[in-house]
């Protein structure tokens, strides 16, 4: 029986790309696999035919020879290029396993955690670290330099981070030949597993370092100096490159991320670049007006004029007395909010004067007069 055209077997055109050929083969492999076609006596033969076609068309040299000479390229004395090719019918278990393994790797390689074409690299980057740093509002205003102690992993000095005694280099794993993974044939499938000898590293240490026990790292607390720029807020993140955990087997270190928290202040409340300060004033100062002295975040003082008749909640703005912009120009503003304070623990004389004042000032309280007038109208309406 004459062989079918390989392109026809896979259901692709002659000008199909490598990706199109692989996709067609994957579809055929699923469709014709004997395990899924127990009721089809021809499934195994068709499955082998598809594998034979893919084994030729996936290889650039074999494909070129086939496009020029057809099946004759692999029969008689024509040969199939370097390494030979299928001769006659099904080309044997080894060639089939190689063809199907390519697709198996493509389908399931990510789940196996492997890397095609080689093992894992022995050097692994260290982990990133996080450090929470609390600063005062004054520090956030002017900027400050802080010294922090960070527990971290550093390269072992005894072995220079190699993990081997005396700093010797690891050797290639004899089980996987440095690939970091081993393959086992199970029927039609080639199963790939992490090498049990080197745990996927591809290398082993014959004589582990006594200090780090072959890890290449030791735990140590380091002191670092950190520059906190002016204008930082809670949540500001500062990155110190290479100050995280050391990598394994001489790999690069991770980074250290410092997260800033600005502590609550006893006097000032912050909203972005603006500051707010509540200042208590006496009833007489609020009524008569006058000047008050208020603190500013840099440690200075400012005089603020209180308008006569000020009420609780009255705000005055001090421009440029707020927080600096982070890594930018300019400052926010400071807002003074008045809180009119009611006197307590009055003497008899003070009470007497306040009663007299209250009798004389009925017409000087427009807000209360207006409110109680509305209340009277409300009650009259309800009664009516």
TrEMBL record:
<dbReference type="InterPro" id="IPR018253">
    <property type="entry name" value="DnaJ_domain_CS"/>
</dbReference>
<dbReference type="InterPro" id="IPR012724">
    <property type="entry name" value="DnaJ"/>
</dbReference>
<comment type="function">
    <text>Participates actively in the response to hyperosmotic and heat shock by preventing the aggregation of stress-denatured proteins and by disaggregating proteins, also in an autonomous, DnaK-independent fashion. Unfolded proteins bind initially to DnaJ; upon interaction with the DnaJ-bound protein, DnaK hydrolyzes its bound ATP, resulting in the formation of a stable complex. GrpE releases ADP from DnaK; ATP binding to DnaK triggers the release of the substrate protein, thus completing the reaction cycle.</text>
</comment>
<feature type="binding site">
    <location>
        <position position="209"/>
    </location>
    <ligand>
        <name>Zn(2+) 1</name>
    </ligand>
</feature>
<dbReference type="InterPro" id="IPR001623">
    <property type="entry name" value="DnaJ_domain"/>
</dbReference>
<feature type="binding site">
    <location>
        <position position="159"/>
    </location>
    <ligand>
        <name>Zn(2+) 1</name>
    </ligand>
</feature>
<feature type="binding site">
    <location>
        <position position="156"/>
    </location>
    <ligand>
        <name>Zn(2+) 1</name>
    </ligand>
</feature>
<dbReference type="Pfam" id="PF01556">
    <property type="entry name" value="DnaJ_C"/>
</dbReference>
<feature type="repeat" description="CXXCXGXG motif">
    <location>
        <begin position="195"/>
        <end position="202"/>
    </location>
</feature>
<keyword id="KW-0677">Repeat</keyword>
<dbReference type="GO" id="GO:0051082">
    <property type="term" value="F:unfolded protein binding"/>
</dbReference>
<dbReference type="Pfam" id="PF00226">
    <property type="entry name" value="DnaJ"/>
</dbReference>
<feature type="binding site">
    <location>
        <position position="173"/>
    </location>
    <ligand>
        <name>Zn(2+) 2</name>
    </ligand>
</feature>
<keyword id="KW-0862">Zinc</keyword>
<feature type="zinc finger region" description="CR-type">
    <location>
        <begin position="143"/>
        <end position="221"/>
    </location>
</feature>
<feature type="repeat" description="CXXCXGXG motif">
    <location>
        <begin position="156"/>
        <end position="163"/>
    </location>
</feature>
<feature type="domain" description="CR-type">
    <location>
        <begin position="143"/>
        <end position="221"/>
    </location>
</feature>
<keyword id="KW-0235">DNA replication</keyword>
<feature type="repeat" description="CXXCXGXG motif">
    <location>
        <begin position="173"/>
        <end position="180"/>
    </location>
</feature>
<keyword id="KW-0479">Metal-binding</keyword>
<keyword id="KW-0143">Chaperone</keyword>
<dbReference type="GO" id="GO:0008270">
    <property type="term" value="F:zinc ion binding"/>
</dbReference>
<protein>
    <recommendedName>
        <fullName>Chaperone protein DnaJ</fullName>
    </recommendedName>
</protein>
<dbReference type="InterPro" id="IPR002939">
    <property type="entry name" value="DnaJ_C"/>
</dbReference>
<keyword id="KW-0346">Stress response</keyword>
<dbReference type="Pfam" id="PF00684">
    <property type="entry name" value="DnaJ_CXXCXGXG"/>
</dbReference>
<dbReference type="InterPro" id="IPR001305">
    <property type="entry name" value="HSP_DnaJ_Cys-rich_dom"/>
</dbReference>
<feature type="domain" description="J">
    <location>
        <begin position="5"/>
        <end position="70"/>
    </location>
</feature>
<feature type="binding site">
    <location>
        <position position="198"/>
    </location>
    <ligand>
        <name>Zn(2+) 2</name>
    </ligand>
</feature>
<dbReference type="InterPro" id="IPR036869">
    <property type="entry name" value="J_dom_sf"/>
</dbReference>
<feature type="repeat" description="CXXCXGXG motif">
    <location>
        <begin position="209"/>
        <end position="216"/>
    </location>
</feature>
<comment type="subunit">
    <text>Homodimer.</text>
</comment>
<keyword id="KW-0863">Zinc-finger</keyword>
<feature type="binding site">
    <location>
        <position position="195"/>
    </location>
    <ligand>
        <name>Zn(2+) 2</name>
    </ligand>
</feature>
<feature type="binding site">
    <location>
        <position position="176"/>
    </location>
    <ligand>
        <name>Zn(2+) 2</name>
    </ligand>
</feature>
<feature type="binding site">
    <location>
        <position position="212"/>
    </location>
    <ligand>
        <name>Zn(2+) 1</name>
    </ligand>
</feature>
<dbReference type="GO" id="GO:0005737">
    <property type="term" value="C:cytoplasm"/>
</dbReference>
<dbReference type="GO" id="GO:0009408">
    <property type="term" value="P:response to heat"/>
</dbReference>
<comment type="similarity">
    <text>Belongs to the DnaJ family.</text>
</comment>
<dbReference type="InterPro" id="IPR008971">
    <property type="entry name" value="HSP40/DnaJ_pept-bd"/>
</dbReference>
<dbReference type="GO" id="GO:0005524">
    <property type="term" value="F:ATP binding"/>
</dbReference>
<dbReference type="GO" id="GO:0031072">
    <property type="term" value="F:heat shock protein binding"/>
</dbReference>
